[in-house]
Amino acid sequence: MNAAAPVFLLTFLSTSFVGDDVPPARWGGHGHTIAARAAVQTLPDGMPAFFLDAIDQLAYLNPEPDRWRDRTESQLDPAMNDAFAPDHWINYERVPDGALDAGNRFEFIVALARAGEDAEVVGMLPYRILEMTQRLRSGFRRWREETDPAARRWIEQRILNDAGVLGHYVTDGSNPHHTTVHHDGWVGENPQGYTAEGGFHGRFEGQFVDARVALEDLLAAMQAAPRVFGSVRDATFEHLEQSHAQVIRLYELDRQRAFDRDNDSSEHKAFAVQRLAAGAAMLRDVWWTAWVTSESEAPPRRGRR
């Protein structure tokens, strides 16, 4: 492990997401939950009924990967959190040219290592989204083919669990903080005088969103029709790149007036709503794409190891 990685991970856990009274959940539990609800509520009627009826379960599961980052469990053994914490972010400033052409997370790790970068610091978010989307599509395909009612119900629970967990990473990606080294205050040269204090991450997606953003705000912002992606991979990188493009705007707004529970600025709210709505729309479209494309025939099976 790179010597800088443990310090980075500890800082990320202890300062990025926990304000005075804010629960340690990215986008806050509230932000993740309303994004999932908005995604389900805007799905086409062609989605299976069991999925549409599971809105409460899918909303509950959206913050689930943050619950795995339980501090008590991490103190008992760091294996789980140290392994999966980087799935929550991608620091674009540290990604070498061409590295994201890697087909999977292991090729990406190798590409980073060749450039002297540590995957634990850079993050693995796009690959986690791709992996979970494929798992979901595989579940939908099995559900289509299954004829035994009991087995079908078990597959439905697998699908809902995977879809709910996938939702966490997709909505994480709509917060610019999850795409940058400036994840909790500006680092390095700072000629624009952006905040460098820890706690910005939690103030924005926890305190401010909890106090100012409601489900109805997201639904009103989600005007575009659902999409079926020709390439989930391309759509995933576009989603994350669009979020990263908002890093400066996020810091500029905070410089004007700090994001916190007392901020009633309509401009600040519009930014937060737009980002959360982008995550909800992306999640809806990933779910819908996984369902629609699960009907296509699979190519001939290659030999297995």
Key terms for this structure?
P1 Nuclease, 16 helices, globular, 305 residues
Shape: globular
| Helicity level | 55-70%
By CATH, the architecture is named Orthogonal Bundle
**Radius of gyration, in angstroms, nearest whole number:** 19 Å
Order of helices and strands: HHHHHHHHHHHHHHHH
What composes the largest sheet? none
**What is the domain tally?**
1
How far apart are the first and last residues' alpha carbons, in Å? 29 Å
Strand content of the residues, in percent?
under 5%
Contiguous helical run count: 16
Annotation, overall tally of beta strands: 0
Query: Could you name the CATH class?
Result: Mainly Alpha
Residue runs with pLDDT of under 50 for 5 or more positions: 1-25
Based on secondary structure, the structural category is mainly alpha
Can you give the mean pLDDT?
A: 90
Could you characterize what this model shows?
- Residues 1-25 have low confidence and may be disordered.
- Helix content is 60%, strand content 0%.
- It has 16 helices and no strands.
- Helix 2 (28-41) crosses helix 12 (200-212), helix 10 (125-145) packs antiparallel against helix 11 and helix 13 packs across helix 16 (266-293).
- The chain is mostly helical and 305 residues long.
- The protein has helices spanning 4-15, 28-41, 49-52, 55-61, 64-67, 71-76, 79-84, 105-114, 119-122, 125-145, 149-172, 200-212, 215-221, 232-244, 247-256, 266-293.
- It has a single domain, classed as P1 Nuclease (Orthogonal Bundle), CATH 1.10.575.
- The chain starts with a helix and ends in a 12-residue tail after the last helix.
